[in-house]
Amino acid sequence: xxxxxxxxxxxxxxxxxxxxxxxxxxxxxxxxxxxxxxxxxxxxxxxxxxxxxxxxxxxxxxxxxxxxxxxxxxxxxxxxxxxxxxxxxxxxxxxxxxxxxxxxxxxxxxxxxxxxxxxxxxxxxxxxxxxxxxxxxxxxxxxxxxxxxxxxxxxxxxxxxxxxxxxxxxxxxxxxxxxxxxxxxxxxxxxxxxxxxxxxx
Length: 201
Ligand code: MN
Fold this sequence. Notes:
- It is a single chain.
- The protein has 8 helices and 3 strands, in the order αααααβββααα.
- It has 201 residues and is mainly α.
- Strand 1 and strand 2 form a beta hairpin.
- Helix 1 packs antiparallel against helix 3 and helix 4 packs across helix 5.
- It is globular, with a radius of gyration of 16 Å.
- Manganese (II) ion binds next to helix 1.
- Manganese (II) ion (MN) binds next to helix 1.
């Protein structure tokens, strides 16, 4: 059974970029709902004690009758568990050394990288996520997913991701997704992104 992970900081600590009420509702209501729904559909099945990563990597092996519910809710749990750690108080800036080199090689510069990442996030119609991912050849790229689909279901390792569901920004930014994204870079926790890269290379 999945449980809501504790935030590694307080709800108000991403202010002024992400407001306290959004963080509180997002964590205690939205993330909790994905967990409750995933637990409900998985309890009593052979997948009950599987790690969420295992389930999402083998999503095609989940019976069709529950697959979409599992994809959406186990996916929501996994994506949000990462998302809280992709952010942190007093963060922002740019990555150091190894990741910086990979980004510059692939996207020419950090600014071009954030520009392309923002375009992917803005271009995601409706609800979903934009990601920086690592593929099995150890190349980085930008992708986006719909709803709560997760890159690990496509055999990609998510290094960084941003939630562009309206529930992630609507209270403070209303429909202004681009403004949310612009501010979001001020809370990106590159230390966590780099640790994910190191563990994946
Ligand atoms: Mn969300």
